[in-house]
Design brief:
With about 280 residues, the protein is an alpha/beta fold. Helices cover about 50% and strands about 10% of the residues. It is elongated, with a radius of gyration of 21 Å. The N and C termini lie far apart (about 60 Å).
Length: about 280
Amino acid sequence: MPRRRQPTARQERLGIELRKLREAAGLKAREAAALVGSDSAQMSQMESGIAGVSEERVRSLAAHYSCADEELIEALVGMATDRTRGWWEEYRGLLPTPFLDLAELEHHATHRLDVEFLHVPGLFQTEDYARAVFSYRVPRLPGNEIELRVRHRMERKAVITGPAPVPYKAVIHEAALRIRVGDRTAAGRQLAGILELSEADHITVRVIPFELDGFAGATNAMMYVGGAVPRLDTAVRDAPHGTGFIDSEAQLGTFRTLFHMVEAVSLESVRSRDFIHQLAKEL
């Protein structure tokens, strides 16, 4: 298969998972390559996502690695044979690559979990809210790039509002709901938008109020995207230097535990809706 100049995060993840299977089998790259009639250079390219992998090769490698997890193998085959050219491709060359990688990740998600303390989750944001967030960047972005980012964020909502939405749970701190990222009118529309989306059966919104005693988890904001099997889940963290995609099984387990801890202390969904209604009345 031809080499890729810039593999997507999904293509890189396939290579990472193949490397993990090889290392679990105790094989070096050159040893694994010899088993499938390849060489160490090509094996390195496959495991870095630079070179594509056929279905036959995925199955052959899995067999040589003594992988008996059929669900994982089928999921990896699906990743290897996926030729989806999604809506996000129209932004290639216009927006930073992580924007596209996140949209692709969400497109293939089986479920989604968010925890936010200072901002409304991206999938809930209105155009005015998103525009205010992107406009606050230093140095300031050109107006046309701000609008591109806003449009991209609105299109990402398809994962929870489209014809095949995924289950979505969002835990939001009261601070994120009270901070007026835009003006009073925009804040009111934002709260109304959250309430409207929360009416869907597949969407659950829970609030952590200021008055909660003993809450020390305010640094645990997260975005968690479910894969075809739990091993292929991904946690996404924003940092000053860019977006990070986390695939370590140990870290994924930590993120799942943290989400359940935060969810457990939040208001249940009906009380959370009432809480947001009250905030909207106070504007």
